[in-house]
Amino acid sequence: MLEVINLQKKFDKFIVFDNVSFNLNKGSILGLIGINGAGKSTLLRTIAGVYEPNDGKVLFEGKITYDNLKAKQDIFFLPDDLINRMWITPNDLKNVYEINYPHFSTDKWNELIKKFDIKEKSRIYNFSKGMKRRVFVALAISSNAKLILFDEAFDGLDPLARLEMKEELIKYVEEKEASVIISSHSLRELEDFCDSYAILDNHKLKSFGEMDDAIDKFFKIQVAYEKLPPEDFFKNLNPRYYNIEGRVVTIVIADDYDEKLKVIKDSRPILIDELPMNFEDFFIYSVKGEEK
């Protein structure tokens, strides 16, 4: 459905990202993750066809997205910097998007503005950031686009609004076999919502895969000793992370888990406890790398 192939984007001589490649299938929700300045917003704009790549290409259903009106009619992009023109109303926006999206559903729009409590004839500059997001989520779903791109989609939304948005997007993806790419600073929000992930770091695609598989890549263990082994013992395990506090060591292992666990057990600890991992842990240890 979506093919991102050896993509590079730079402004003047500054490379935002380079050699980014991944595929996204129908009916998938991908979480795009990275620290501030990693290039998430620029990548979404490039996929949407707003920016022209300096190298590589973006194909959506076999069509290049940049400068391609036909392709863009099936792609909805919600940026982080929402429109704030004083005179415009949600109904005005609906009229504009009806023109640009030939399969726009007025019935769905009417259903969602009622559910999201959107006053369609009020001027949008009076809306909170969260309410503006509700407006654009309603527009995105009503557009019947096959690919929806959200930049910081949960920003400004209260817990109930986030839940409602997730429910509507999941239903939309299932019914339309559409796909969604969504960036968010809240990794816990993505963990229970996305089925796949992509991590941007240091101008590269650091990691890409299934959300469930990501959490299974790392193991966090807490070990207590009567007499602590030399620090080199833990370094030799090539951990992704370790921390020593008194006689208690927290260590994160990324590979050869069974073998390294046996080595730890042979060091005669008085306690070994495997700690739960979540996607936020995975992101931190993926980006930080090995920490001593």
What can you see in these coordinates?
There is one protein chain. The protein is α/β, with parallel strands linked by helices and 292 residues long. It folds into 2 domains: 2-211, Rossmann fold; 219-276, 2-Layer Sandwich (Alpha-Beta Plaits). It has helices at 40-48, 69-72, 90-100, 106-115, 129-143, 159-176, 187-191, 211-215, 231-235, 257-266, 279-288, and strands at residues 2-11, 14-24, 29-33, 55-60, 63-64, 75-78, 147-150, 179-183, 196-201, 204-210, 219-224, 241-245, 248-253, 271-275. The strands form 3 sheets. A 6-stranded mixed β-sheet has the order 6-7-8-3-9-10, sandwiched between helices. The chain has a 4-stranded antiparallel β-sheet with strand order 2-1-4-5, covered by helices on one side. Helix 4 runs antiparallel to helix 5 (129-143) and helix 5 packs parallel to helix 6. The radius of gyration is 23 Å and the shape is elongated.
Topology:
Layout: E1 2-11, E2 14-24, E3 29-33, H1 40-48, E4 55-60, E5 63-64, H2 69-72, E6 75-78, H3 90-100, H4 106-115, H5 129-143, E7 147-150, H6 159-176, E8 179-183, H7 187-191, E9 196-201, E10 204-210, H8 211-215, E11 219-224, H9 231-235, E12 241-245, E13 248-253, H10 257-266, E14 271-275, H11 279-288
Parallel strand pairs: 3-8, 3-9, 6-7, 7-8
Antiparallel strand pairs: 1-2, 1-4, 4-5, 9-10, 11-13, 11-14, 12-13
Helix pairs in contact: 4-5, 5-6
